[in-house]
Prior knowledge:
alpha/beta; Nucleotidyltransferase, domain 5; Hypothetical protein af1432; 22 helices; five-stranded mixed sheet
Amino acid sequence: MKKGGVLAVVDLGSNAVRLQIASVDARGRTTVLAEDRAAVRLGEQVFRTGRLSAAAIARTTLAMERFDRLAQRAGASQVRAVATSAVREASNRAQLLRKVRGRTGIRIEVISGAEEARLICLGVLLGAPPSERSLILDIGGGSSEIISARGEEPESAWSLQLGSVRLTEFFVQSDPISRKEARLVDEAVQDALTQVDPLLIGKFKRIVGAAGTTGAVAQLARRLSGGEPVSSLPVTYQQIAGVLERLRGSTARQRAKMGVDAQRSDIVYAGTAVLEGVMRRLRVDELAVTSRGLRDGAMADLVRRMGGARLHQESVVLDGLRAFGRRCGYREEHAEQVAQLSLSLFDQTREVHRLGEEERALLHAAAMLHDVGSFVSYNRHHKHTYYLLYHADLPGFTDRERELIATIARYHRRSPPKDRHEEFQRLTPEERIVVRRLSAILRVADGLDRGHRRHVRSIQVKRRGARLQIDVVAEKGSDLEVWSARQKADMLADVVGGDLSFKLQES
């Protein structure tokens, strides 16, 4: 977005949906123009039944229609909507996505837990120096994210099934909460926290709470301590523990007198229990609260995407790809070689395929992980790769992007894409074109490392009329690689629309 403009983002959380509208200048700097919130309780029942309720879908759709009108009045050129745990876990999420798309034209992105953590980190720590270390906590309705960060990128992150709505629906029946219910909530929190790296215990004295629940609990802690509710000063663990104790014996009427918002009254105990449990487990002394969070990260990410930033070069994205590959026991050196050759071929054939940076990112991910299906079985590993990537948790990519990555990787060998293939049928006509072109590039790149020997040092693509010549600079004895690339070049020849030849230059 070199000339600036107005953008809007929506965070569809399990408790509330939140809108942010911002203007963007020519340098990519944002100024928030308006923010709005609607407590639609999207996660109502979903954590027990596995389905979004009809009432929650209706409330959310109405809120999205209102947000869409606000964005249009502000002149927003694009509205980005991201959904988290409630929609992520719902078996009928397609119903919500279709309804909102039909009423507003907005396509909701269902993001993974890892991507949620990345966006929260970006929103809270945008512009932080690389040397700065931080610990972040975001307590949502369905999940909580604990993030250890360096600069504005997460070093490690955990998305835990600990949310104020989830815990309340599972364990809280009475008002005030009973001793047994309080014990079950605490046990659930401590059990989930065993997933967090124990090396984090005692490492940070302060934790940063991202908006929402942590902000409400901090305000309550200050109020109950006789201080100013709205303050930038941190609150102590002892204050948070005191709030939990007060809430444990309080009724809805008493919570209202304390200043608890009516829309949060029934879930505030569970949210406070998560906060207190995290601080106790990690031995954190202070909580500092920021108003920034997921929607700020979604906005910053959108601005970078529209500005042409190569998001797949961010270390958190690359680390996520490598981490998934390692879990599947992939051959890392082969993956890196194929990725390098794929990107080189992509960059040198831009005039032919006419794809941009977003598609380049998809190719990079597919190339890095094209062989992970070998973890299941080599003979059909392209199909197993599709399944694994379709369900993978890859930071930096939306659900739709992950599906495209899976489909590109699926066609790195054997049969080319066919309209009768179920996974290919799911794609739009435009997406099918992208998959054909990127999988064509990936097939050739994979062929150029047939023996997994990394013999090919570089490639140079030369256009001679309708003909494309690929000079392969490689070590002596690399005939197998060139032969394999030639055998797998049929799809790329179709993309080129002419002859395709290879020339080996031994070095």
